[in-house]
Design a protein that fits this description.
CATH architecture: 3-Layer(aba) Sandwich
Shape: globular
Bound molecules: S-adenosylmethionine
Number of helices: 9
Number of strands: 10
Strand content: 15-25%
Radius of gyration: 18 Å
CATH topology: Rossmann fold
CATH superfamily: Vaccinia Virus protein VP39
Distance between the termini: 32 Å
Strand order of the largest sheet: 3-2-1-4-5-10-7
């Protein structure tokens, strides 16, 4: 999935949901940025977390925000305007234009699963971290998503298509050994659950469902099926039968 155009717009709306705000808080606590540090956020998207990291670092720190999508970086640059530590940059996390061992910490929120060469991405992040540098990586095990209140057959078509939205749709399940192979010591993996008992345009579930429907159509599912699924979710909400949950996992590791 490429986060440009309409897909970037939906994803950016999603990041402004209450659930994303909670998640940012959790990730920020784990990352624990200290004044003057140099931190890189790979796949920074719309830059909401990047802004908070930059503020925590103060004017003498560096919060480098990398994203391969110019649309995302344009939004991140606006979001972070006026925060001196923040530098948003278009770039590929597989080839970060930085010397070895210069960052105190790195963070990736729902990013590594989109990179086919995920293990090479982990290596590249290790390369730019100082020994002892922190890496916080949040990703979802998509097999844990529950969409309740809609016909199961419709959901099955959409979720089957969603399998291909990222090369690693259940990244947390394989991440710890991958990190260990690439020079990290994993310190913990904890759940950061999302629960949406209602469906509305500012909810995590709404944004995610619209990304899923768009991806399903791109993957060959008919527009009618995608439309019917979104419509069924709307009706489930009206009937007070809607429920969504998913189970992202936050993994923390230290560069050896
Ligand atoms: C699901 S979005 C998450 C954005 C943001 N971290 C958030 O939580 O809102 C994934 C992001 O990773 C970026 N991305 C994917 N592959 C990348 C790569 N190879 N290098 C840099 N960024 C990449 C995408 O452009 C997109 O903005």
């Amino acid at each position: 999935m490429r986060f440009v155009g309409e897909i970037a717009e939906i994803q950016q709306r999603l990041t402004r949901s209450r659930e994303f705000a909670d998640r940012r808080h959790t990730v920020l606590q784990e990352l624990a940025p200290r004044r003057g540090e140099r931190i890189v956020e790979v796949g920074c998207g719309a830059g909401l977390l990047l802004r908070e990291i930059g503020i925590s670092l103060g004017p003498h720190g560096l919060a480098l925000g990398l994203d391969i999508s110019p649309d995302q970086i344009a939004t991140a640059a606006k979001e972070c305007a006026g925060v001196p530590a923040v530098v948003p940059q278009v770039g590929d996390l597989l080839a970060i234009d930085q010397p070895d061992g210069v960052f105190d910490a790195a963070v990736a929120v729902q990013v590594i699963e989109y990179v086919e060469a995920a293990e090479a991405a982990v290596s590249e992040i290790r390369r730019i971290l100082k020994p002892g540098g922190r890496f916080v990586c949040l990703a979802t095990n998509w097999d844990t998503a529950v969409w309740h209140g809609v016909p199961r057959a419709l959901t099955a078509e959409i979720t089957a298509a969603w399998e291909s939205h990222a090369p690693w749709p259940n990244l947390p399940a394989v991440l710890a050994p991958m990190l260990a192979r690439r020079g990290f010591r994993v310190t913990r993996q904890i759940p950061v659950p999302v629960v949406n008992p209602s469906w509305h345009p500012d909810s995590f579930a709404w944004g995610t469902a619209h990304l899923m429907a768009a991806h399903a159509v791109e993957s060959g599912v008919s527009e009618t099926v995608a439309h019917d699924w979104l419509d069924a979710l709307e009706k489930a909400e009206a009937a007070e039968e809607f429920f969504f949950s998913s189970l992202p996992i936050m993994t923390t590791a230290i560069a050896g």
